[in-house]
């Protein structure tokens, strides 16, 4: 019985050694992206959160001018986000208000809220409101970016005859570059 086990061991050791990955991967063009974008939908009077994850985006990309986050796993609270006119050149924080701006489709009715909508009815009453936000690029390469974002966006509501606001705070990891 021992001879049979030794022979089996001798037969499989070369097979196991052959399955090990090469030690020098510098010359190979291997791109393993673990893209994950998580977000929280937040009230319009709050700052960035690290709270409960509401959902994730599946279809994501970036280029010099925009970051696009589509196909949310929680389509009822937030369907998509676009951050446009960014001129991404590297690491750092990019402000979102009028240009560059952010917009997204929120809620069951997928109403589009944008940072370039000014909450005039609130401001005319002398109320302090938060508008706009940022995207912060913490890792940057020609192939992918990582970071976080936060913004408060507004839209006009005909039924309320005033602007309504909502916000989102999130993190992203290895969003791939796409023209």
Summarize the topology.
Layout lengths: L1 H17 L17 E7 L12 E8 L3 E7 L5 E7 L7 E5 L4 E6 L4 E4 L5 H4 L8 E9 L3 E14 L4 E15 L3
Poorly predicted spans? 4-34
Largest sheet, in brief, is: 10 strands, antiparallel
Rg over CA atoms, rounded to whole Å, is 23 Å
Order of strands across the widest beta sheet?
5-8-9-10-1-2-3-4-6-7
Sheet-strand content, in percent, reads over 45%
Task: Please give a structural write-up.
With 179 residues, this protein is mostly beta strands. The protein has one domain (33-176). It contains two helices and ten strands. The chain has helices spanning 2-18, 120-123; strands at 36-42, 55-62, 66-72, 78-84, 92-96, 101-106, 111-114, 132-140, 144-157, 162-176. It has a ten-stranded antiparallel beta sheet with strand order 5-8-9-10-1-2-3-4-6-7. Strand 6 and strand 7 form a beta hairpin. It is globular, with a radius of gyration of 23 Å. The chain starts with a helix and ends with a strand. The model is unreliable at 4-34 (pLDDT under 50).
């Amino acid at each position: 019985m021992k001879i049979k086990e030794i022979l089996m061991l001798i037969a499989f050791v070369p097979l196991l050694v052959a399955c090990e990955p090469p030690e020098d991967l510098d010359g190979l063009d291997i791109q393993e992206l673990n893209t994950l974008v998580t977000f929280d939908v937040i009230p319009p009077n709050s700052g960035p959160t690290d709270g409960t994850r509401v959902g994730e985006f599946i279809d994501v990309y970036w280029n010099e001018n925009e970051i696009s986050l589509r196909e949310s796993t929680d389509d009822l609270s937030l369907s998509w986000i676009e951050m446009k006119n960014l001129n991404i050149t590297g690491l750092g924080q990019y402000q979102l208000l009028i240009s560059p701006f952010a917009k997204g489709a929120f809620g069951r009715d997928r109403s589009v809220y944008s940072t370039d909508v000014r909450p005039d009815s609130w401001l005319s009453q002398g109320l302090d409101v938060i508008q706009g936000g940022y995207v912060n690029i913490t890792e940057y390469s020609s192939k992918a970016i990582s970071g976080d974002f936060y913004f408060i966006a507004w839209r006009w509501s005909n039924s309320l005859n005033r602007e309504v606001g909502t916000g989102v705070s999130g993190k992203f990891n290895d969003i791939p570059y796409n023209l």
